[in-house]
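Format notes (please read before filing issues)

Several people have asked whether sequences and structure tokens are stored in separate files. They are not. Every record keeps both together, in the order shown below: the sequence lines, then the token lines. Line labels are part of the format and must not be stripped during preprocessing.
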Amino acid sequence: MGVTGPPGPVMDRDEVDRALARLGAEYEAIETSLLALQDHSGRRLLEGAALTGVTKERWASAEASITLLWAYFDAYTDALRSAREIRSRRRWSSREDLAELTELLRGESVTVAGSATATANAPTLHGGSGKLSERFSLATLVDRMNELYATSLDMVVAADAVWSALPARIDLLAAELQRTRKLAHSVGVRPGEHPAGDDLERITRTLTHLREQVVSDPLAYWNPTPGSSAPGGGRPDTTVYDREARALEDVRREIDAVLTVRQDAEQRLIRLRDVLSRADRTLAEARTARGEVLAKIAATEVPVVSGPPTVLQEQLATAAEYRRHAQWHRLSPLLESLEQKAEDELLRARESLTAVTQPLAVRAELRGRLDAYKAKVARHGLAEDPFLIERYDAARRMLWSAPCDLRVAEQAVLRYQHAAAELLRAPRVPEQSGPEDRRGEDRA
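Then the structure lines:
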């Protein structure tokens, strides 16, 4: 929308013609703008909406402004028509016509009478109070129309932008929410039973409330651009929507985790039973070994072997029950806990077996050491030495008797080793088979 030139002295014919041409162009621009505002989708929506809050207040003002705009435009139209009629009286306007045209085109010659409602609600130029009628120059009238048009269009464009952006996005998110709710129910994620179910209820309430607010008060969700003078400068405020969209995504990930449990539950339960069964067998082997150790080994501490923990079997039975009743949201955390406990139990059973069989391992190591030295002595031709035979038999009786005293048996093996070592170090007179014996000594 344009602006006329400043007022001045009596205009000549050329100035009048130029002013009328300029006013005619402004008329076309103003009319086009007003018709576009009248047909704006946002304005039509505002007229039919049940508004609340700040939007209701601003629309009441904008509606009055639009009504006043048309009144101003009608007055502007009448003034322009009158000026054209005066100019068309004569090809060469008289002094009186030019004076009248100057007053009409530059003076405060336009009177606008408006309704009390329109003038009361519409914003006034320079912040003055509303009046039932006002006088304007055409230039001031154009300024006034520009001001009212800009504020009205800004409000309409802002409301339309919010309505165009947020409700559709909220509806799409609500549709996704419904699909997630159905999926959640299928795996037992329900309000009051699972945190994700409670989150879905909260998101549903928030989205419902958000949509109602956006539809009735769109300007409450509009962030104007600071310093922008263009109508509709800003963007919709999507803070609440974005927060709930992120919350729904978190719930979807939780549901996906539960779905994974549903798909893998049978295999995981089978693996759990196998691990616990191996732990039980290992503990049973440890208990059997403990009895053997107590019977064969004397004067030693043998740790007690505990039985399998019944609580794990009870939890395993509970997990199987959850699976039978499709309570996947409960099965998921229980399986994770059980898998860790089952591995710990198998490790504990293996450690118990190792601790219990340690004395048998020590006896076996002593037996092996004794036989190794006997073989070494035989390679050096000392197998028939009476002293060594006596020491060997004493150690062997202790190691192969039950119960075996490991401490005494170890001392007997050491005595045999020391005796063998002394004989092997002692010089001997070479015999006919000496070279062979030396070769055997070298091999030792």
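For reference, the curators noted about this record: Residues 170 and 207 are 7 Å apart (CA to CA). The first strand starts at residue 110 and ends at 113.
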